[in-house]
Design brief:
The structure holds 4 protein chains of 4 kinds. By secondary structure, chain C is mainly alpha-helical. Helices cover 76% and strands 0% of the residues of chain C. By secondary structure, chain D is an alpha/beta fold. Chain D folds into 2 domains: 60 residues; 222 residues, Rossmann fold (3-Layer(aba) Sandwich). A 6-stranded parallel sheet of chain D has the order 3-2-1-4-5-6, sandwiched between helices. The chains are: A mainly alpha, B alpha/beta, C mainly alpha, D alpha/beta.
Chain lengths: 272, 295, 245, 298
């Protein structure tokens, strides 16, 4: 019996895998319909049933917290109130003229009021908090530790500047200085004499600026010296290459993982 | 001789399928227009299967060490030493994403480690169905390590389905429980940064793994170790250590090699096209047909 | 002074927004309360949404089309998810909880079968197709395409698991990492942009609600919160000193 | 001096938070403080040009796939596009793929109506459809058989009674598809399931975070340009604004000549965005100087 209990789930898993896959290739309308629509609908329905378990778990967790007066238990009351109000407005009290069900999206229902004035500001402020965290993350993490980190930093900074109006205002000579600085930062370890290094750095900067003045770069800046153009190039070329490599890699990983699942080799998810 | 025969026989079924497909015996048995994807799937699966069999027959396979995976045990160990818990975040997607499934499988391995070290494990879930799968997988791991007494259902619990409410809830857990090791393994969206930054502010060892390519940079900057893209999917096989699984990774590498060859082939064809040696419209090979059976 | 549901709602909105923002100062009672409210409200919200948008029309709309009009015809095949869903609920009965494994098995298997095709097509074959180079274009564009090609190949080499990163493979994979890093940097830069935009949206709301029409919601709540946070942090300090003493 | 720099390296997060907050807040309260000229991204230009090439009476399918949380980034694009299309007398078909999207679409349309620039009627010049569950399945359905997915419009009128729906059976009957998205389903699904197999031109406006993932499609031409986040929205908005002013002076028959054309929202927000970006770059530079010194110290 125990054996049966274990094997049945694995058999279901393998069969479903092959059925779902074959729907893309076998010309049988019922099967194709299943792969295209029903399979995902089934998932949604099962997940909907599982949602009951989730809600019970939530209630249990917070009631326990309150009952045993665990640390911060007072706040669990807020969770319970919020949850119960939403359930009442979602299933019992309507408040608008439309039927139960569509009332979730009718702007006169009580449910919508809760959505609009409680849920939405909370969700979008949480989202907006990211702006602050992204700032502190970049302050801490964008350090020239090694060559890889430097690349991360350069492409990040150029993107940040190139996509907003301020990027276009950066004059060409700033960009030439930036380029020479990067170049010298890379070869820094090769030149041991500090004086030579420093002098050649200053000299090449002056050289480029004079060259720029002679060629009138301030009037027609070459693309390589305009931040928005560099930003576009980074997006279009190296970042695309990186994205593509990751995409293909991810797909290969998924193919192998799916194959292991479909052939019943990866079954630890079923507790085996 | 015998083993060679065994290896060859795995190609019989795909080959038959291919022949069957090519002739399309029964009238319109197969959907027309999906030839390339059919062939690719068949081919990749056959290669992976081939290496799985090979590994099973005892072939030694070298696997490059991946630091993030070696650090997992270390992180659990450190958490035990400090007497703090281990937090495992399985991402915010449902069980219909391979990322989440991989995350739950890796959770099984981590649960094995916490059972061995007797560390506290805490798994807040975003989707109820993932919670159920995670419980199943944890329970079994504790059982396998002979410590079912350490497992209880409240280790794995539901927070909420909403992306940011979940992030807020997990942040709260991190701030108040101060776990010593935090794992992020699964599908992540914008909340990744919020979680990783809070984790780094409490000084936990953080190990992340995800296939969401736009979130990897945040993990890279805020976490100690990251499994990038493909590494994440391979991790579950790596951690299991069984020859079958390792073999499948080797097979995956070969599929990758063929992908590269295919890319070069496409490039060469485009060169020949330009030089007028050939006139193949490559995009014709790549046509896919999804809906025609659904009229 | 006007009072109606809208005004009350806006006061709540401002309060919730500022409470979450107070997290920037550190973990505090306002944030804890709003976090807990958020968890409860969102769980209830999603549960109602799942029920009315998914289960009700998709399941009952197909099994009992006469009672639940969702625009679907009767479809007997939908008995299967009903059974699997009930299996899921049997989790609550320990002796029958093994049945839930079948539902999980179904979902995992289905996901594997569906994703294998989708990813082979869109992530592998489509990307390979796009690697074709159009040599009739200008020199710079051909150069760009070749650079992309180099990036993709070296990036893939980085992901080789069964070869040690030494010698040629080591060097090529190093180049691969460089391309990946540039991609990550670009993602990071774009994320900064997006997040700041959202913050702008949030602040605009707060600014809009500081006018008289809304009884000066933002400034009033903001001042209230600052004062209570000050009191709270002073109290915290007192407590810790007591503890030390 | 050195000590101060070293201290900067371990700056309290809260100071960074405060500065970022102020850098966004001040330009918002006083928009005239900084006025920066807008640039033109290549991808934005491609979007604008592709829309400009459409003719009077063409049909454009717009898919709304974003919610309130990403509204600041995507919504201005949607309003800008609607302005652009109605100025050219193009018929608009709106579908919603996220539960919150119908609300967003409704708000975008009512913003257009409130401006009183166009004489547009529901069911004749535009039509809206309610949210449908299923994500990419809905997209596949639209690609194959529009009427199988939608039987009635948002007001409950059967599509057989709608004059605008005449001759619409699948995605090929549209001259252009425009997607506004903030996640999944979004532009990738439109490429994969509808527009690429059926060969219908597609363009997208999305949140900035999605852009790096979508850029391979743009490079290969599967997406005709892309509007990237709020800056993309601002650039596009500006182009549309210039176009509308020009058309109004040319006595365009679709624009109400008496009403003033107002600049969009994204444009005004760009100075706040720029200042914040500049501040971040400053942070990064300061952080690196501090890092340099601290490494020297050790």
């Amino acid at each position: 019996m125990n054996f049966f209990k274990r094997q049945l789930a694995i058999v279901v898993m393998s069969t479903m895998g092959f059925i779902a896959l074959s729907g893309y290739f076998i010309n049988w309308t019922t099967l194709r319909n299943f792969t295209d629509k029903d399979a995902t609908n089934f998932y949604m329905i099962i997940a909907g049933f599982a949602a009951f378990l989730g809600c019970l778990n939530l209630l249990q967790l917070h009631l326990q917290k309150i009952a045993y007066k665990k640390e911060n238990w007072q706040y669990s009351i807020f969770t319970l109130i919020g949850f119960i109000i939403m359930i009442i407005f979602g299933f019992i009290y309507n408040g608008s003229e439309v039927d139960m069900g569509p009332h979730l999206k009718d702007d006169k229902s009580a449910f919508y009021w809760m959505y609009n004035y409680i849920y939405l500001p909370l969700a979008s402020t949480m989202f907006a908090l990211l702006a602050f965290f992204v700032a502190s993350a970049s302050y801490r993490a964008f350090r020239i530790r090694n060559f890889e980190a430097t690349l991360l930093l350069i492409s990040g900074v150029l993107l940040m500047l190139g996509r907003v109006p301020i990027g276009a205002l950066i004059p060409w000579w700033v960009v030439t200085i930036m380029f020479t600085s990067i170049f010298f930062a890379i070869i820094a370890s090769k030149i041991l004499n500090r004086k030579v290094f420093f002098l050649s750095y200053v000299f090449s900067n002056i050289l480029f600026i004079i060259l720029g003045l002679l060629l009138d770069w301030s009037l027609k800046t070459p693309a390589i010296l305009s931040i928005p153009a560099i930003q576009e190039w980074i997006m279009a070329v190296p970042a695309t290459a990186g994205a593509r490599a990751i995409m293909i890699g991810i797909a290969l990983g998924i193919v192998a993982q799916s194959y292991r699942i479909m052939t019943g080799r990866e079954r630890s998810i079923l507790g085996d | 001789m015998v083993s060679k025969f065994k290896i060859d026989q795995i190609f019989i079924l795909p080959f038959l399928l291919l022949v069957f497909y090519a002739f399309n015996f029964l009238h319109n048995f197969f959907v027309l227009g999906n030839e390339l994807s059919f062939f690719t799937i068949l081919f990749s699966c056959a290669i992976i299967e081939f290496f799985i069999r090979k590994a099973k027959n005892g072939d030694d396979i070298y696997m490059r060490p991946i630091s993030a995976m070696q650090a997992m045990e270390e992180a659990v160990g450190r958490a035990t030493e400090m007497g703090n818990s281990v937090l495992y975040v399985p991402g915010i997607s449902g069980l219909d994403e391979i990322d989440t499934i991989s995350g739950v499988i890796i959770l099984g391995h981590i649960a094995g480690m916490t059972a061995e070290y007797e560390a506290d494990l805490h798994v807040p879930c975003c989707v109820p169905i993932v919670m159920e799968a995670a419980r199943e997988s944890c329970k079994e791991s504790y059982l396998k390590k002979g410590r079912p007494d350490l497992y209880n259902d409240s280790m794995v619990h539901y927070v909420t389905d909403d992306q940011f409410a979940y992030a807020a809830g997990v942040n709260g857990i991190m701030l108040r429980e101060k776990p010593a090791a935090v794992f992020y393994q699964g599908k992540f969206y914008a909340e990744s940064l919020l979680l990783a930054e809070t984790g780094s502010s409490i000084g936990a060892i953080q190990i992340a793994g995800t296939g969401s390519s736009s979130q990897i940079p945040f993990f890279v900057t805020a976490c100690d170790y990251v499994l990038i893209g493909e590494e994440f999917y391979a991790a579950s096989a790596y951690l299991s250590g069984s020859p079958e699984m390792i073999g499948s990774i080797k097979g995956q590498d070969y599929v990758k090699l063929f992908c590269m060859i295919f890319i070069l082939f496409v490039v060469i064809v485009s060169i020949f096209n330009y030089l007028n040696f050939l006139s193949i419209d490559i995009s014709n090979i790549f046509k896919i047909n999804i809906m025609d059976g659904l009229k | 002074m006007v009072f109606n549901f809208e005004i009350i709602g806006i006061w709540f909105l401002v309060l919730m927004t500022l409470s979450i923002l107070s997290y920037l100062y550190g973990d505090n009672p306002f944030y804890k309360a709003s976090e807990h409210i958020f968890v409860g409200v969102s769980a209830g919200y999603i549960f109602a949404l799942t029920w009315w948008d998914q289960v009700w029309p998709n399941l009952f709309g197909r099994l009992f089309p006469n009672y639940v009009q969702a625009g679907f015809d009767f479809n007997i095949i939908y008995v299967i998810p009903l059974i699997l869903g009930i299996f899921m609920l049997l989790r609550l009965i320990p002796s029958l909880s093994w049945l839930a494994r079948i539902s999980i098995g179904y979902i995992v298997g289905m996901a594997a079968g569906l994703k294998i095709y989708v990813f082979i097509n869109s992530n592998i074959l489509m990307q390979i197709q796009n690697s074709a180079i159009d040599f009739s274009k200008s020199g710079f564009e051909i150069f760009n395409h070749i650079l992309i090609l180099v990036g993709v190949i070296s990036g893939l080499v980085y992901f080789f698991f069964s070869k040690e990163h030494k010698g040629v493979i080591g060097r090529v994979s190093k180049i691969g990492i460089y391309f990946l890093m540039i991609k990550f940097g670009a993602s990071f830069g774009f994320a900064v942009m997006g997040r700041i935009s959202l913050l702008i949206g949030r602040f605009e709301d707060l600014i809009n609600y500081s006018i008289e029409d809304y009884n000066y919601a933002t400034p009033v709540i903001f001042t209230f919160m600052i004062i209570s946070l000050l009191i709270w942090s002073l109290k915290q300090k007192d407590n810790t000193e007591d503890y030390k003493g | 001096m050195k000590n101060y720099i070293l201290k900067l390296g371990n700056l309290d997060r809260r100071i960074i938070f405060l500065l970022i907050g102020l850098s966004v807040l001040i330009p918002l309260i006083n928009p005239n403080l900084v006025d920066l000229p807008l640039g033109q991204d290549r991808n934005t230009k491609i979007v604008y040009d592709s829309i400009s090439e459409l003719n009077d009476g063409d049909r454009v399918l717009i898919s709304f796939a974003y919610g309130a949380s990403t509204k600041p980034e995507v919504h201005p694009m949607a309003v800008g596009l609607l302005n652009h299309l109605f100025t050219k007398g193009i018929k608009v078909y709106i579908v919603s793929l996220w539960p919150e999207s119908p609300i967003m679409a409704e708000q975008a349309i009512s913003a257009i109506k409130e401006s009183q620039l166009f004489d547009i009627k529901d069911g004749i010049d535009f039509v809206m459809f309610d949210y449908k569950v299923g994500g990419f399945v809905v997209i596949k359905g639209i690609a194959d058989n529009f009427r199988d997915i939608y039987q009635q419009d948002k007001n409950g009128i059967s599509i057989n009674d709608l004059p605008i729906m005449e001759g619409i059976y699948d995605v090929k009957d549209f001259d252009f598809v425009f997607d506004f998205s903030a996640g999944v389903p979004g532009n990738a699904e439109w490429v994969q399931y509808a527009c690429d197999p059926k060969n219908v031109p597609l363009s997208s406006g999305c949140t900035s975070i999605m852009v790096t993932d979508a850029i391979p499609y743009v490079e290969s031409g599967q997406l005709k340009g892309i509007l990237a986040g709020m800056p993309g929205a601002a650039e596009y908005e500006k182009m549309v604004y210039d176009f509308m002013v020009k058309e109004q002076n040319n006595n365009n028959k679709y624009i109400n000549l008496e009403k003033d054309i107002v600049k969009g929202k994204a444009y005004a927000r760009m100075s706040a965005q720029s200042i914040a970006h500049l501040l971040m770059v400053l942070f990064i530079i300061i952080g690196n100087i501090a890092y340099y010194f601290s490494r020297k110290e050790n």
